[in-house]
Structure of Major facilitator superfamily (MFS) profile domain-containing protein:
Amino acid sequence: MGKGDSKEEAKWTFWLLTAGISTTFGAAIPTGYNIGVINAPANYIKEWCNETIFETYGTVLTEGELDTFWAVVVSIFLIGGVIGSLGGAWLADKLGRKQSYLACGFLLVIGGVCFQFCRAVGSVELLLLGRVLVGLAAGLTTSTVPMYLTELAPIELRGALGVFCSMGVTGGVVVGQILSLEEIFGTEELWQFALSFYVLLVITFFVPYHWLPESPKYLYVIKQRRDEAINEIKRLGGKNVKDEYIRQQIESMRSEDVPNSVSDDEETQQTKSKQRSLWSVLTDPTLALPLILVCALQGGQQLSGINAVFFYSVSIFESVGLSSTGAKFANLGAGCLNLFVAFFTPMLMEKFNRRFLALLSCSMCGVFLFALTFIVYFIDHVSWFSYASIIAILLYILFYQIGLGPIPYFIGSELFEVGPRPAAMAMGSIASWGCNFLVAMLFTTLQSAWGAFVFLPFTVTCVLLTLLLKYYLPETRGRHISSIVPLVSNGFRSKPLVPWS
């Protein structure tokens, strides 16, 4: 489909919505849930770990050793995310996009079972195994689900459907925070239910899995099962799909497939070349710039400081005079704002250019992070700075969610053709989870050493990312991949901002 295609055909159909809702609630929300659920009941889980280790091994951990063990419990999820991202490229090509989603659900369910029964059997190993498994599922989710959804969608709806994963992760964090409150499951007796509750979502929203469509592009380009691909296009197009729409979709896929004039042997060889290994993608100079853009956006999403801001916001809310409990609820409110803005991102992606939203988001995040640094440094000297800090946090969250939050999840699907796309999405996901791990490990230490200036590295990240995107990110909304790839195929000598019609 190109720019001149009929807008009437770019519509939300039953199977398009079903795939979006199923993957969002079945994998993306559980991914965010496992990020947000672990903090509130941390003290109860740590006490249980200490008691269980003593009962099992006869060892009493010191406070420092217990803190180290807990850091392992938290961070092993992020390590699992890195490994899961790496495996995403292989699974997406070998099993297909749809079955990769099934693998996410399987890992999530097994992880949830580990959480539910670790206390009953008195096993900290089961708790650690559960965190590894949900981490693997999280990495697999962020590397394959956005790709699956964008390959199902017509070009006009590609961004709108692509942000479903981002919305799910954002919503899952909030749901995890809510269900882990002491008023619900975050108690000494019920914390295992808090950790495993998401399994109900996974099981419920995997019910329609059998009937979900496979990616037509995967079937047509990678597997060469063209009749099946065309059938999936018809299903996705709905009952009243027009022949012209089907023809346009086939032409779109052919542009990413092997030339029609080659012989059978040549076609077989070229078809194999569509299944690009991770190493071949990393060493291909024509893919260097788009790979840098994807990794910079996904890594920059974490290094922009969103998790650090949420971590620090509790103490800022307390500085205004809120109680510890009140500050936690205010922090939850900030998370709800994040989710509220996320609900509008499908409309934003459909109506506004990616470049505009990404540049606005990155630049304004940098502005408000710098403002937050200045405000927090002088917060004890100016009475109204406490309230100014809250405004800075809320505006940062607002601008983060209109671009830097959702766009990195799916931009790889718009910069890469079908062959190298799984490897590119996997590398982007690795950058995301790896940078998330760095922030989790270093933020508290840097905060103690630098104080308010801990936000400056995040500010610098936003500035550098803004410059990179300004000069090298092509506009991808409403454009076919065959017109985008040549714009970024010449490394940093590329000129991706050429006019287009």
Q: What stands out?
A: Residues 63-94 form the longest helix (32 residues). The two ends are 14 Å apart (CA to CA). Confidence is low (pLDDT under 50) at residues 1-8, 259-273. The CA atoms of residues 88 and 140 lie 5 Å apart.
